[in-house]
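Researcher: Re-running this chain for the archive, since the previous output was lost when a drive failed. Same request as before.
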Amino acid sequence: MPEEVWPDAQPFRFEGGKTGVLVVHGFTGCTQSMRPLGEGLAEAGFTVLGPRLPGHGTSVEDMAGRTWEEWTGEAEKGLRDLLERCEKVFVTGLSMGGTITCYLGEKYADRVAGLMPINAAVARLNPLMPLTPIFKYVLKTIPGVGSDIKDPDSKELCYDKVPVRAAAELHELMKVTRRDLPKIIAPILVFTSREDHVVPPANGPYIIDHVSSRDKELVWLENSYHVATLDYDKDLIVRRCVEFIRRLGG
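Model: Regenerated structure tokens:
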């Protein structure tokens, strides 16, 4: 029997013009963290799709049985939907959603119009990350990494524990994505929080240095922690994404 999805974790879709934007949430989080960005993009007139990745917004146990291919597959399904209906399609995502943004930019290099990863994880998160494929046999969960937000009035809807099996899947996704970063040729706008307690800020410059895009820019977020889409810089992110898309003819 399918797991019940939290009410605020449901996928969202906003119908708009001929420019589409795929909005991908992060690891252990859900669509709630991306809804303000999705709504801001919709208000600008774009068609917006925010999928719920398998195992998210349900239970820790559900997430533990999922693979990185399931996560990228669900995002890819949304991307193909937009590619069929829109003239230009952009992709944005937070944390692992930013990793998936880069992954899709690699796989659909000549079809995406632009990428906007936010605090994307591509390099090692901590020294123990490469050991998760071994730890998953002896540990079920580790403490959660969600809701790293500077604004005390904002809260991310996420799990309070991380399945080690899922962390091992994330590690594999990061390896694949990091290896293929040079395949990215689309314009890319990389957002990186100066103070991030989940993904080291060095990930932003790393992406910029390894993609093949000629049109690339790094935007430092000076007033947000990891979940920047719910933090003090959320309006800045919306504004810069809209400007980026419109500059590229969206």
